[in-house]
Amino acid sequence: MDDKITAAFDAVRASETLKTRTKAYIARKTNGYAAQKKPHRHRMMLAAAVFPAMILFAGAGLFLTPTTRISIDINPSLELGINRFDNVVSVRALNDNGKKLAESLDITFTPYDKALRTILDNKSIVSLLRGNEVMTITVAATNSAQSARLLSRSQTCAASHGNVYCHSASAEKVAEAHKLGLSFGKYRAYLELRALNPAIAPEDIQGMTMREIRELLSALQAEHGTGGQPPAPGGGHHGNGHGHGRR
Hints:
By secondary structure, the protein is α+β, with helices and mostly antiparallel strands. The chain has helices at 2-29, 33-64, 96-104, 112-120, 123-130, 144-158, 171-179, 184-196, 202-206, 210-223; strands at 68-73, 77-82, 88-93, 135-141, 164-169, 237-238.
């Protein structure tokens, strides 16, 4: 009986020895499996650090990408880039007066409503509007819901200012305006003027104020017998929502 017990323990010891030898053999053949674990952990740590950065950059890309362009024309002329969160992410001057106005503003990364109120309350803009100049605000968005939302906000902000008119437009039309070197507000007026006088070129109205453009349009309409007070350039919606802006 004692011999059987001894043999059994010897078998266990032999099995443990076999296990040890087997592990050593596998380690030699696999170039040290244990050594491979460390680089694997390193890769995991690197991935853990890179992934949040990728998410951060992707989020920044969404935040900084304009989904809507808003043309503000009175001469100065500006174009605001608005992201999907309705914040201003770019301010582009479209003429020399626009450059001066842009330099006096600090509206990047602010909500559109606040940015537009800042522009409307700017001393030079207030002076122009009080002098019976005309401002057009054109919203061009790729998303119809955002377009309607920003157009409504534009009308609300402009409600207490005379001679401010708001419109919506397609992004394709804005691209056409840019090709001609015009802001979209002036481009809409240019199309109306050209319908009455095909000889009118984009550069003829580039330096004009919106009021001067309206007066030219009125004169051409009278010349062609259409007469009457011209609408806000390109038609569209009045800024105060009720059509009581000063003329």
